[in-house]
Design goal:
The complex is a heterotrimer of chains A (about 180), B (about 300) and C (about 625). Chain A is about 40% helix and about 15% strand. Chain A is of the alpha/beta class and about 180 residues long. Chain A has a single domain, classed as 3-Layer(aba) Sandwich (Rossmann fold). In chain A, helix 1 packs antiparallel against helix 5. By secondary structure, chain B is mostly helical. Chain B contains twelve helices and one strand; from the N terminus they run H-H-E-H-H-H-H-H-H-H-H-H-H. The radius of gyration of chain B is 19 Å and the shape is globular. Among the domains of chain C are: about 270 residues, no CATH class; about 45 residues. In chain C, strands 3-4-5 form a three-stranded antiparallel β-sheet. The termini of chain C are far apart. Classes of the chains: A alpha/beta (about 180), B mainly alpha (about 300), C mainly alpha (about 625). Chains in contact: A-B, A-C, B-C. The interface between B and C is large, with 80 and 75 residues. Strand 1 of chain B pairs parallel with strand 6 of chain C.
């Protein structure tokens, strides 16, 4: 079941991989200013549905979690819970500079700066904010990563759960999340 | 050998139903996209979605009923399909259609929804419960015109068997859509409710209820439900083709007729907003019911 | 005494009741043994019941007892429900007060039901009818408090019905000089049609009170809600069917030849249809599990009356089949609700929730019962409704089909609410300690009845065989090409193969379930009901995440024009007015001698004035 190894891919794996990268159910967690970039991406002008990208309302059905901007510590807790409620394989796309290095909130007391320390991000889209074109190019990048078998943030999260948890607990003071038994 | 042929016939029927079902749904997505001045996904997009869902590595459940809900759903879809004659004549695709009748189909068609409601109930998600409450209420709405239309046909043809209703419509002039247009109108409005497309999609309202009853279903569970949905869409369309359009003697004819019928809810769905639950119920109890009653009176008068 | 005779049978049934009462003073195990033995002995004796009739003279009247195929079918229902009922009572009633009275009354009720069924004349029928009413009244008020009020209501309705029956029995006796149903039927046809109409009307009124036909259903919700749960199962499952038994007897043994027979039956069919529709709507509104089931019983009895009144062979088969099946699944539901009450002390649907993992067997029982109640294949309820719809369509009652189908579809709403509110939804800490009920005395009766719904769904022939002999006795030509062991046929020759149905449904369901269960089993996690999509929020311990209150608000808004009117409220208003009138009249008795003297003077003045005016 090692999809990283190109030589051992079976026909079933090829089909699975094809389906996975062409059917991306998106859960847009509308933080920050990036949430406003999602509607134009989805609707007539840019039509993300061509690539099999459709929005879903619940984390149980979704494959891709969009973090569309800065995350306050309070929101981070909800995002982590939402991410953990999603089913494997799952991918995270971070929007804009706020998720990369804090952006204009780099010295804010209650936002986190580097999203990658708290949850594995597969694709970053730079810009402040990224336009729909760059959002779509980010999705294409994700598709390429899935095809190459490199979009394995969800595995990293499971393997390095302790490290992520420690980072999360460092910023979230009132930690009352349920424990998981992967 | 005969048994083998029969059994492979069952699987062939399910395969055809599934394929046609997801292609039709893909067609709907493309059509919706074109109306909205978009390109839309490829026509096989629903198949990709289903494969993707089945290939999810993990799943969660809230208990036994969450396994049983989608299982009830697929049971209802496949059983409905098995008891509907797919083609007019010939040995293929008849399956169990001689063993049951319309009253049975009426009840087995709601079996899946009740099962899904039970599965959704155990997840404990309040959105699911609200969706179930709306969905079940809506069933009470659209079943009335549907039964009125079916009763008109059953009384007119003096049979409850789909085969005999099909056999009676031997020429285009004998199709029930022309013989009893009122029944067709009542039936097709009920069909709008059955598809759960707009304007009758309030049980699954994604933005309001987080997709309603299936909101806790993911991975294999959602995959099973979408598989079942594809099969069920085909089964319902075939039923309506058999009832009103005289059935079909080959698969191509069936596809054309079913697509023609399918376009009605799709096109209405693209351009309409959404009814609230009580508005939907009252709508079904008003015009379609009156039309259905008129269709029965028409039949009684014609006899 | 002949061991296969009816006197011995009734002696066992009634004698066991009193023996059990006496045994209560010895030890409760002894009493329970006697109760169980009595009920199962009478159930077993039913198989060996001889054909001979038995007559006895009492005060100048001849009482005649004997069995007919028609009564034997109903006796089978009573026996089928009586054994689980007493079994279920053993643990359930252990907590309650005055168990001796309970068992005495329960056994007398059962015995009186047998008595009604095996009466060949109207007088003994009436006597047993009254015994049944009295003993069931005592059972209804067993809990005291609110139950007393409900019991009195039940008794008043029953008394009205009973006197209507007595009235016509007296007239019929004067007409024919005999009380035997056969003789009465023979002289009945000679009467003038209006007389026939009146007599049949009063008799049907009397019996339909017990069946809870609208508008005579006022007692049912209260009485069912307040009586002890195991008895409610028998009450709704078997006792109310005595009304159906009587109506069938009146319609087809006495009244059939009358010119008014057809219009009356048509009227009755519509009454049944409207009852089932309105009671279903009412059941959707209820928030108490037992009241919900009570209204559901009224609705189901409406179906039975509908089938009974149509009078085609198929519809009669449907009516009797539903009579049995309703008894079975309603007993299951009352048992399960009783089991929940036994463990939690609650029947309020707004308070109960999430018991599925605590009480899985009760859940399974309710699931099977509601599938049967909602007429969904492959369980027994479907067979009954299939027969009913076919007969409605084929006897040209197209609009009754719609009414019946409406209430059948609307019944999904209340059955889902019942199972959802009690067993599904959020699991609360409050119910963490709840355990499943004991196996032998409580789970076993439920599971046994669940097996009955399953078997009758696949092999309805087991039930249709006694039904066809009962119908042949009533004069319906039931041929053997109308049904077979697992096939149903309608009058147009269409068929329903239940074996094919169960094999398809069973195969697909098992395959689907196996795939869902075992596919990626190791990566499938069980999570609690707190771990749900709540927009990322972690729910706290006391957060209310259940949508149970006002569950069908949109539907109630749509059906508001119908739901806002109530016959029971109107009848209650009459009752209140009468009691207020009495309260007012009470003021006449002031207890003051002078006032009384004034009354006398006023009265005399009035008499004088009236007398002089008349003269």
């Amino acid at each position: 079941m090692e999809i990283n190894d190109k030589d051992t891919l079976t026909i079933v794996e090829h089909i699975k991989n094809f389906a996975r990268r062409h059917s991306l159910f998106v859960l847009a967690y509308g933080t920050g200013c990036g949430a406003i970039e999602i509607p134009p991406t989805m609707t007539s002008r840019y039509d993300a549905e061509r690539f099999g990208i459709v929005g879903r309302a619940t984390p149980r059905q979704a494959d891709v979690l969009l973090i569309t901007g800065y995350l306050s510590v309070k929101t981070l807790k909800r995002v982590i819970r939402t991410y953990e409620q999603m089913q494997d394989p799952k991918y995270v796309i971070g929007f804009g500079s706020c998720t990369i290095n804090g952006g204009m909130y780099w010295d804010s007391y209650n936002t986190i700066k580097v999203l990658d320390q708290y949850m594995p991000v597969d694709v970053y889209i730079n810009g402040c904010m990224p336009r729909p074109e760059s959002v779509i190019s980010g999705f294409i990048k994700l598709q390429q990563l899935i095809k190459a078998g490199k979009a394995d943030g969800w595995k990293k999260y499971q393997e390095n759960l302790d490290w992520y948890r420690a980072n999360q607990k460092k910023v979230i003071k009132n930690w009352n999340m349920p424990d998981y038994n992967w | 050998m005969e048994t083998l042929k029969t059994i492979s016939g069952y699987f062939a029927t399910i395969g055809v139903a599934f394929t046609v079902g997801f292609l039709f749904m893909g067609f709907r997505r493309i059509l919706t996209a074109r109306v909205q001045n978009r390109v839309g996904p490829p026509i096989y997009q629903n198949l990709l979605d289903i494969i993707k869902l089945w290939s999810k590595e993990s799943a969660i459940n809230h208990g036994l009923m969450q396994h049983m809900g989608p299982a009830f759903s697929i049971t209802a879809s496949v059983t409905t399909l098995m008891f509907i004659p797919v083609l007019r004549d010939g040995n293929w695709f008849q399956n169990f259609s001689f063993e049951g009748d319309l009253i049975f189909l009426l009840y087995i068609m709601v079996f899946g929804q009740l099962g899904m409601a039970l599965g959704a109930g155990q997840t404990g998600n309040p959105n699911s419960a609200i969706g179930v409450s709306r969905g079940l209420s809506q069933i009470v709405g659209y079943e009335i015109p549907f039964v009125l239309a079916l009763t008109a046909l059953m009384v007119y043809h003096e049979t409850t068997s789909l085969h005999e209703i099909m056999a009676a419509q031997d020429s285009i002039g004998g199709w029930n859509i022309f013989v009893n247009p009122l029944a067709f109108v009542a039936g097709i409005i009920a069909f709008l409710g059955m598809t759960h497309y707009t304007p009758f999609d309030v049980p699954f309202a994604p933005a309001e209820l987080a997709s309603g009853p299936p909101s806790e279903f993911g991975g294999k569970y959602l995959g099973m439900m979408m598989t079942s949905g594809s099969i069920f869409a085909f089964a319902k369309l075939t039923l309506f083709v058999n009832l009103f359009l005289g059935g079909a003697s080959n698969l191509l004819e069936l596809l054309v007729k079913a697509l023609a019928l399918y376009l009605i809810p799709v096109i209405i769905g693209i351009v309409t907003p959404r009814f609230r639950t009580e508005q939907a119920i009252l709508f079904f109890w008003k015009w379609p019911t009156i039309i259905g009653i008129l269709s029965i009176l028409w039949v009684v008068w014609m006899r | 005494m002949d061991i296969t005779g009816i006197p011995f049978f009734l002696a066992v049934s009634f004698g066991g009741a009193f023996l059990a009462y006496l045994m209560n003073f010895a030890h409760r195990f002894l009493r329970n043994a006697v109760v169980l033995l009595t009920v199962s002995a009478s159930a077993a004796l039913l198989f060996w019941l001889g054909d001979e009739t038995f007559s006895m003279e009492m005060g100048g009247f001849v009482l005649t007892l004997g069995k007919t195929p028609y009564s034997l079918f109903f006796a089978g229902i009573v026996a089928l429900l009586a054994v689980p009922t007493v079994l279920f009572s053993f643990t359930y009633m252990a907590k309650e007060e005055r168990p001796a009275m309970y068992y005495l009354n329960l056994l007398i009720t059962i015995a009186a039901m047998y008595g009604i069924l095996f009466s060949l004349d109207l007088l003994s029928l009436f006597i047993f009818w009254e015994i049944m009413t009295w003993s069931s009244f005592l059972l209804t008020i067993h809990k005291g408090g609110n139950a007393t009020k409900a019991g009195v209501k039940y008794f008043l309705y029953s008394a009205a019905g009973a006197y209507a029956i007595l009235f016509s029995v007296v007239i019929l006796y004067n007409m024919s000089g005999s009380l035997l149903i056969e003789d009465v039927a023979r002289s009945f046809v000679l009467q003038n049609p209006l007389m026939q109409l009146m007599l049949a009307g009063t008799l049907l009124f009397g019996f339909s009170v017990k069946a809870g036909l609208m508008p005579m259903h006022g007692w049912a919700p209260d009485a069912y809600a307040e009586s002890p749960a195991p008895f409610t199962a028998l009450f709704s499952g078997a006792l109310s069917k005595m009304g159906i038994f009587g109506m069938g007897m009146v319609l087809y043994q006495i009244f059939l030849q009358s010119p008014f027979s057809l219009p009356v039956r048509e009227l009755l069919a519509w009454a049944g249809g409207i009852t089932s529709a309105l009671a279903t709507l009412r059941a959707i509104q209820q928030t108490d599990a037992k009241r919900l089931l009570a209204y559901s019983s009224v609705a189901q009895l409406g179906y039975i009356v509908m089938g009974l009144a149509l009078g085609t062979p198929l519809s009669m088969m449907a009516a009797l089949f539903i009579t049995l099946l309703h008894g079975v699944f309603k007993a299951m539901l009352f048992f399960a609700v009783g089991a929940v009450y036994f463990r939690t002390g609650l029947t309020d649907l707004n308070e109960l929730r999430g018991l599925i993992r605590r009480m899985p067997v009760s859940f399974l029982t309710v699931l099977m019962a509601i599938i049967s109640l909602a007429n969904i294949p492959p369980l027994g309820g479907f067979v009954g409704k299939w027969l009913l719809y076919e007969s409605l369509i084929q006897s040209d009652h197209y609009f009754l089909v719609i009414v019946a189908f409406f209430s059948s579809t609307a019944s999904f709403l209340y059955v889902y609410r019942l199972i959802f509110s009690i067993f599904l939804g959020q699991e609360e800490k409050e119910f963490e300690h709840v355990k499943e009920v004991p196996f032998l005395t409580m789970q076993l009766p439920m599971l046994a009845l669940a097996a009955v719904t399953f078997i009758t769904g696949i092999f309805p022939g087991i039930v249709l065989a006694p039904i066809s002999s009962a119908l042949t006795y009533l004069g319906f030509p039931i041929q053997h090409d109308m049904w077979s062991m697992s096939m149903l046929f309608n009058e147009w020759g269409n068929r329903m193969n239940l074996l094919a149905m169960i094999s398809v449904i069973g195969t697909v369901f098992l395959t689907g379930f196996t795939i869902l269960y075992f596919y990626r089993m190791r990566r499938t996690r069980y999570v609690t009901t707190k771990d749900i999509h709540t927009s990322g929020e972690v729910p706290t311990e006391n957060e209310n995440l259940t949508y149970a209150i006002n569950f069908y608000q949109p539907f109630e808004r749509a059906a508001h024009p119908v739901l806002s009117k109530s016959i029971r409220a109107w009848i209650d208003w009459i009752g209140r007015s009468v009691s207020e009138l009495g309260d007012f009249l009470r003021h006449i008795y002031t207890g003051d001698g002078q006032t009384y003297a004034w009354y006398v003077v006023l009265f005399l003045t009035f008499m004088l004035a009236a007398g002089s005016w008349i003269l």
